[in-house]
Amino acid sequence: MLLVRRFTIYADVSKGGTVSEATRLTVLGMVRRRPHSYGYAIVDEVSRWSAPEGVAPSSRGVYKALEALRDNEMIAPVAAAGETSVQRRRYIATPKGEARYLDWLHSRADSFADLFRRLGSAKDSDLPVLIEIVRAAEHELVAVSQDLQPAEPAALVDGGCSWGEISAAILQAAEWNESAARAGFLRSIRRELEYVHERYDAKSAAT
After folding, report:
1. Which candidate, 117, 82, 84, 88, places its Cα nearest to that of 12?
2. CB 62 within 8 A of CB 43
3. For the chain, does the N or the C end have fewer beta carbons within 10 angstroms?
4. How far is CA 8 from CA 15, 92, 190, 204, in A?
5. Looking at the domain that runs over 21-108, which CATH code has it been given?
6. CA angle 51, 57, 60 (to 5 degrees)
7. Are 28 and 75 in contact (CB under 8 A)?
8. Tens digits of per-residue pLDDT, 101-122?
9. Is residue 9 within 8 Å of 53, Cβ to Cβ?
10. What are phi and psi of 37, to 5 degrees?
11. pTM for the complete prediction?
């Protein structure tokens, strides 16, 4: 069920040292957004994310992701302006990496954690895509809320229903409330994104 799943703490690097796909794509997006990025700068940026635990890549995950992305030719080392060496390990996204990130960005978001990672790694030019992803998730959660239509526990008690039926109705009501709240949360995010997009367009038109 789209974006109904709660945040879950995940291991972005396995015990064997393999970095998760979610972390690789997040770091790839951050390199794409800020060419000539390097590990410490990315770690510093994600440390300031206001996101639940387990959503932002760990510092170890960032460096492992950069290594994996480089090995898979998704990013390439470059020298910054004025430098003659690539030893500082700065990176840019390659065309292969750009295509892979855009495939992910345009795909269906299946959790709030997934949505947070996209918001944290996308470019401002990706705003139309982000708006549509959030709108689709919002509409699905609204539909979930409408489909649930939980019965009132008091009415079930008065109707002589069993405790099993009453407890099921209470749980369904909790799910309905959560779906409605999450839909409202997504609506707020969408409106903020739309406002920013409109302001960017206005500034572009004025120049």
Report:
1. 117
2. yes
3. C
4. 18, 30, 23, 39
5. 1.10.10.10
6. 145
7. yes
8. 999 999 988 888 899 999 999 9
9. yes
10. -70, 155
11. 0.82
